[in-house]
Amino acid sequence: MGSPSDHGQEPPAGLAICARCAAEKDLPLGRCPGCGHVPAAEERELAIVCSTRILDVAALRAAQERIRRGEPVRPTSALRAQARAVLTGHAPTLARFTPRQVAGLVIANVVLTPLLGYAVWFRYRTRPGPAARQALVATVPVSLALLVALVGWRLLFVSVVETAH
Ligand SMILES: [Zn+2]
Q1: Who's near 64: CB < 8 A, 6+ residues apart?
Q2: 84: exposed, middle or buried (C-beta count within 10 Å: 0-12, 13-18, 19+)?
Q3: pLDDT in tens, 9-39
Q4: pTM surpassing 0.85?
Q5: Separation of CA 24 and ligand 1 centre (Å)
């Protein structure tokens, strides 16, 4: 599904539009350069929705058109929930494991298989935050140690078998 109306313009980082006049601004909660409006109270949620924090550029442009036509912007409850999460700081922006979780992953890597740790890394590799790196730190040394142990054991085993002859 192409988007023929996409002009290939890269949006500036953090584009937002005013929910009142559709003017563009840098910060969703900042003062609108067009009408001077500053989102307050429950308007903040809508202001966050009307930004690239929540919408992609195409959807943001569509919202901009609606506002310019005088139509109300009615974000879905899911989008509003996302905006609330951004406002309350609970947005899933940073994935981070607690020390307990890291310790648990190390133990699972040792007791079960380091493939577990690599699976965790794979799952979190595109998520912002230290989680993917934490998973690797908890996994790579374990898998290397197991590899060394395996190779060492085989060498020892072979040498034992050879000396037995
Ligand atoms: Zn405005």
Answers
A1: 17, 22, 24
A2: middle
A3: 444 457 899 999 999 998 999 999 999 999 9
A4: no
A5: 8
Rounded Cα–Cα distance for residues 70 and 22 (Å): 10
At residue 92, the 3 state secondary structure works out as coil
Closest to 78 in 3D by CA, of 49, 39, 41, 56: 49
Give Cα 27 to chain centroid, integer Å.
20
Calculate how far, in angstroms, residue 61's C-alpha sits from the geometric centre of ligand 1: 15
From 76, 86, 77, select the one nearest 51 (Cα to Cα).
Answer: 86
Beta carbons within 10 angstroms of residue 160's beta carbon? 9
